[in-house]
Amino acid sequence: MTTSESIRTYRRPWITGLIAAGVSGVLYFFSTGLNPVGALLFIAPLPVLVVSRRLSAGKTFVVSFLASAIGTMNFAVYLAVFMPPPLLISTLVLFSGVFGLTILAHRAAQIRLAPLLSPFVFPSTWTAFEFLRSIASPNGTGGSIAYTQTNFLALIQVSSLTGMWGIVFIVTLIPAVLAVAWSVKSSMKQIMGALAIPALIAAFVLVFGYVRMTRDWRPQAMPVGLAVTDTTIKYFQSENPAESLPVIRAYADRAADLSGFGARVVVLPEKFAAVTVKSDSIVRTIFSRTSMRDSIVIVAGLNVIGTDRDTNAATVYFPDGKILNYRKKYLVPGFESKYYSGNTPLTFSVGERTAGVEICKDMDFPEWSREYAARGATILFVPAWDFTVDGELHMRMAILRGVENGFSIVRCAQQGLLTVSDFRGKIIAEEPSSKSPEVLLLSLVSPGPGRTFYSTIGDWFGWLSVAATAALILTMLPGTRKD
């Protein structure tokens, strides 16, 4: 072989790998992030999965790392708001490195395992990674690819059995099995061996989803109202009553207006106004009088400040004069470092229904919502505050909590979306807070059936993925051969 032929032979795998990295990277860029085209995720890793069989281990890692690095650029600008540059860079490098390792595991599986087992390595390893990351991360499940699929209603119903981890597994199983089938395309028997079990799993998931979506569940609907304005956000930390109390009175008037349209419960956004020791009694009087006069339940997100530790609170006012308080459990790192974290769920009765209250970031943590399911909640009221560009992302996260636990979600976000969704994840009503200077939304919402298999058993599928990953890796240790 001449020198020029050697160079061409050396370059050919790199060229193929870099093309695959570019295609997968672009597909990941558009299928994940803040406004994803979720359907693309089913093919996003396919190019690097396919070429991994033809590349060395080192080239495979570099190619898959590049693909992930390109794909995660859709999140980089957003994350830069919350993270200092060194932490941001290290986070993205770690993420891409783990992706490279999962593709390496897939490559090893095709070499050492039979087609019957090899398609399961990529989905099990990636699901295990996302699950373990959710346990360790202060942002919980933020960034999971499961949230890209909330428009695929038949698929997301599986989360009522497996939690969001079942969605992650299915989304990564499809491209993995296609890659394995392509690698053994010369043998129909091996193709069928690769496709058989994944096809049965996919069929079960879709049939289950269809059955759950068509389930006859028709409890009496409840009229709810949501109210928000983004124009007075600047006063959320003001301790000056001349600035904060007009905001309070304006929101009380909006609640009264929604009551006039028929709402029985009105949800107001997170930290829409500041409450101090001096203004606390006045705020209570304003909302209590409105609640009693108009016979409505008001869920108000308030910024309680001026004490040793501030509190991000949701206060619930009842027509009989009762007042209940909830403290946000999961605080935004950095932004809420001075705030006191709560640790007690809040549930209460609205007619014959059991309702609960969470605040914004609480919905990023599935285990907290399971606490509400255990207490019998069938509907959640969620004051929230988004950062405009991530409104859709946080809406999708909240929707999935409802599917997992069998309850409807009423979420009112300033600088975000006002949404009402049912226990199947279907959006019943939606309005952006930016639609006008003042947004009122009235909707009917039926409570969900409540507890699901997932909310009862917990993260069994996440742990199963961890165990399966460990078992599959053990079978690929040196000395293992294909059957």
SSE inventory with pairings:
Elements: H1 3-31, H2 46-52, H3 57-71, H4 73-80, H5 85-112, H6 121-136, H7 153-156, H8 159-162, H9 164-183, H10 188-213, E1 222-228, H11 241-260, E2 265-267, E3 274-275, H12 280-294, E4 297-304, E5 310-317, E6 323-327, E7 339-340, E8 346-350, E9 353-357, H13 366-374, E10 379-385, H14 391-405, E11 408-414, E12 417-421, E13 427-432, E14 439-445, H15 453-457, H16 460-475
Parallel strand pairs: 1-2, 2-4, 3-4, 5-7, 9-10, 10-11
Antiparallel strand pairs: 1-14, 4-5, 5-6, 8-9, 11-12, 12-13
Helix pairs in contact: 1-2, 1-3, 2-9, 3-5, 5-6, 6-9, 6-16, 9-10, 11-12, 13-14
Distance between the termini: 36 Å
Radius of gyration: 25 Å
> How much helix is in the residues?
40-55%
In terms of structural class, how would the helical and strand content be classed?
Answer: alpha/beta
Largest sheet: 8 strands, mixed
Helix count equals 16
Please provide the ordered H/E string of secondary-structure elements. Answer: HHHHHHHHHHEHEEHEEEEEEHEHEEEEHH
Poorly predicted runs are: 5-10
**Please, what is the average pLDDT?**
93
Spatial shape: elongated
What portion of the residues fall into strands of 2 or more residues?
15-25%
Please give the number of β-strands.
Answer: 14
